[in-house]
UniProtKB/TrEMBL annotation:
Record carries keyword Ribonucleoprotein: yes
One GO term (biological process): translation
Keywords: Ribonucleoprotein, Ribosomal protein
One GO cellular component, as annotated: cytosolic large ribosomal subunit
Protein name: Large ribosomal subunit protein uL30
The organism of origin for this protein: Ligilactobacillus ceti DSM 22408
Lineage of producing organism: Bacteria, Bacillati, Bacillota, Bacilli, Lactobacillales
Any Pfam family: Ribosomal_L30
């Protein structure tokens, strides 16, 4: 199964608490922080909620 590299590119300041919780749940803290997550339905759903805040690319 493939992995996705998720990078936080926008601040969560002024965003709803649910979006802040998703960012924290993915393990992202500061701007430009990255995390590699498995490519499954749960992760894609979480990324979809904050797709305007992150950059997603395919990781090996």
């Amino acid at each position: 199964m493939a992995n996705l590299k998720v990078t936080l590119i926008h601040s969560v300041i002024g965003r709803p608490q649910t979006q802040r919780d998703v960012v924290k749940g993915l393990g992202l803290g500061r701007i430009n922080s990255s995390v590699v997550v498995p490519d499954n339905a749960a992760m894609r759903g979480a990324i979809r909620k904050i797709n305007h805040l992150v950059d997603v690319e395919l990781a090996d």
